[in-house]
Specification:
4-stranded mixed sheet, alpha+beta, single chain
């Protein structure tokens, strides 16, 4: 399941640059605490990320073709009892044999390949 609409509060470096921000300005926004990094993605505020922001950041981090999957997709479609603190993604790359891939820097993300 893909997110229905992008969030203006979650950006990649390239999206921030394409919006007209210079590299120095982006670095300043982060170092000053006005923005924060969530994975290699930026939040355009300094508060706690919402669940939607976490999901969008995970999708941007995973790259083109990634989609929410498993319990997350079921819960977003309105099915009850499928809530999960982890963010499950389906991704387009395929390691040999298929595997659940986790990033030590983001243990709450699970990408299923196979």
């Amino acid at each position: 399941m893909r997110m229905r609409e992008p969030l203006a509060t979650v950006l990649t470096w390239q999206q921030a640059r394409n919006s007209g921000l210079t590299a120095d300005r982006i670095r300043w926004l982060v170092s000053s605490g006005r923005w924060q990094r969530l994975h290699p993605v930026y939040l355009t505020h300094n508060g706690a990320p919402t669940r939607d922001e976490q999901e969008v950041a995970a999708l941007l981090y995973a790259g083109k073709g990634a989609a929410l999957s498993c319990c997350i997709a079921a819960a977003r479609d309105g099915l009850v009892g499928f809530e999960d603190a982890r963010i499950h993604l389906a991704v387009t790359f395929r390691p040999e044999g298929g595997a659940a891939v986790r990033n030590r820097g983001a243990p709450h993300l699970t990408a299923w390949c196979g």
